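Notes, p. 3: input format for complexes.
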Amino acid sequence: MKNHFGNAFFGVKDFLGFFNGVQKAIHSVDGVAGTYTGDNLFTFHKNLSFLDDLEFVEAHSRHAVTEVEKSTIWRAAVVLWGFRHGLKLEGDFIECACYRGTTARIICDVVKFEKFLDRKYYLYDLFDHNPGLAHHAMPAHSKTLFREVRQRFSDCTNVMVNQGEVPAVLKKNSPSKIAFLHLDLNNKEAELAALEILFPRIVPGAIIVLDDYGWLGYREQRLAEEPWFAERGCSVLELPTGQGLVIR
Ligand SMILES: C[S@@+](CC[C@H](N)C(=O)[O-])C[C@H]1O[C@@H](n2cnc3c(N)ncnc32)[C@H](O)[C@@H]1O
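Output follows (248 residues plus S-adenosylmethionine):
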């Protein structure tokens, strides 16, 4: 039985008190097994079956370096599941937005994406903070991040790293058939605009992962996206990870 201990929690005001409480809870359980902490999750006596996927766990520990990246392994496992499903369908793969490229890098390692020469993985991001746009600054945003992320995928010629604002960049360069979409823009307007463009191109049965859907801090996104998908005959499953899952 495996455990995964991460320290990143969001929205905590008394971190020491919270952390001590989590430690106490862990040690109050009958046998520390199947315990997951981090990313606003605390589970115990769960299979955590994604931790049995050794290639995934190794790729994750190679590439996840920040506390947030280490704590969000369950989210990465969800993305990997949707991506693997997409490999059985027709079309290309998209992540809007990729930030440092960590999730995409883990996926590429696990599925050995460089061997799928007839498939492409399109990554988009601004890579640098633009105070004129409705997106928040993140620690790695910089003038050089685009170059660094391109370098991170230099061994995967079928990964297309694109710098630009969603949705404008999608109008310039995006695939016509999509087998998997990972949407993580932290921004209602940009996500809806991306969906307007990309949803009609997503092949039936493909998975869409909405990273922010279940988070109260991004509640505006859920309030807008739930009816948007309902109008198109799809329902969104809110996962305990905070992600939303849609089957096209
Ligand atoms: C939470 S991060 C993405 C993390 C990434 N999906 C991962 O799994 O590692 C959100 C990113 O969205 C980008 N972003 C926000 N609004 C955007 C827009 N309109 N166009 C392009 N990128 C945008 C930000 O620059 C930021 O890097």
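The chain has a mean pLDDT of 97.
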